[in-house]
Amino acid sequence: MHFLDAGPHRFSLASPLVMGIVNVTPDSFSDGGRLDDAQAAIDHGLRLREEGADILDVGGESTRPGAPSVPVGEEMRRVLPVIEMLVRRGCVVSVDTRKPEVMRAALDAGAAMVNDVTALRSPGALDAVASTGAAVCLMHMQGEPESMQQAPRYADVVEDVKRFLLSRVEVCTEAGIGRERLVVDPGFGFGKTLEHNLALLKHLDRLAELGLPVLAGLSRKSLLGRLTGRAVDQREYAGVAAHLAAVVRGARLLRVHNVGAMRDALAIWNAVEEQQDGT
Ligand code: HH2
């Protein structure tokens, strides 16, 4: 697991990749409403690329707890112009969607990766990506966004999430999606209590045992607020610390709002990792 193939792009995983979040939604939990027109989202994406994002994750439907689902036509109207323009400007784009129709249209528009919080479980989702070369992020979620935080329960959260991800990896490879295109993600905050999230973070190395790159998405999430008492727009330091805790345990992709802060942290991390002994 040294590379990730995403369409025409091959990423080295020697050091962690940074995925910058571009939400084109009026109701995202942390930045909702600020990027709900295409030009603002495009400008934001270009700024994140300047700050050092390897991949831009464009999403048109909020998955925050309690969020209503968005009709397919509306989701396409939101994301397609943004994806088209960011690709034209040379960015590597991932589409954050659970709808096969949106996946197909986004891949046609040049997206190189599908990031699906339902791990390609929607009917038709596997077919939408199998015959393309796109990378896929398979995320674990218990329940649905409408109700997932009501009473999440696991026998053993780390084992349960690992087993689920393994089963989705098997389904994907049987459908013709090679392992070099797959990423797995425990889905922090998706049907998980604070204790579940912390257990998953502490034992992220056990998910890395699947032999696939692990993505961690902790940016601005409520667990950071629970631990620091900070409001959603004041969780940057906590987010950087949480993502570094994930990197220590093997995370290879970090999905973040503040790309510049994460890049600075990784500059230090990478320098320490690369330091030769005996000098
Ligand atoms: N978290 C969110 C959305 N998509 N995808 C992956 N793979 N992993 C995550 O942890 C993840 C995700 C939620 O964060 P955000 O995009 O900031 O908010 P919203 O869903 O409200 O747009």
Walk me through this protein's architecture:
By secondary structure, the chain is of the alpha/beta class. 41% of the residues lie in helices and 16% in strands. The chain contains 10 helices and 10 strands. An 8-stranded parallel sheet has the order 8-7-6-5-4-3-10-9. The chain is globular and about 55 Å long. The structure holds 6-hydroxymethylpterin-diphosphate. The site of 6-hydroxymethylpterin-diphosphate (HH2) has 21 residues, from strand 3 and strand 7. The site of 6-hydroxymethylpterin-diphosphate has 21 residues, from strand 3 and strand 7.
As laid out across the biggest beta sheet, the strand order is 8-7-6-5-4-3-10-9
H/E order of the elements? EEEHEHEHEHEHEHHEHHEH
Share of helix, binned? 40-55%
Biggest beta-sheet profile: 8 strands, parallel
End-to-end Cα distance? 30 Å
Low-confidence stretches are none
Number of strands: 10
Net shape: globular
Map the helices and strands.
Blueprint lengths: L2 E4 L2 E4 L4 E7 L14 H13 L4 E5 L12 H17 L4 E4 L3 H9 L4 E4 L8 H6 L4 E5 L17 H18 L7 E4 L8 H9 L1 H5 L5 E3 L5 H7 L7 H13 L2 E6 L2 H16 L5
Parallel strand pairs: 3-4, 3-10, 4-5, 5-6, 6-7, 7-8, 9-10
Antiparallel strand pairs: 1-2
Helix pairs in contact: 1-2, 2-3, 9-10
The protein binds 6-hydroxymethylpterin-diphosphate.
The site of 6-hydroxymethylpterin-diphosphate (HH2) has 21 residues, from strand 3 and strand 7.
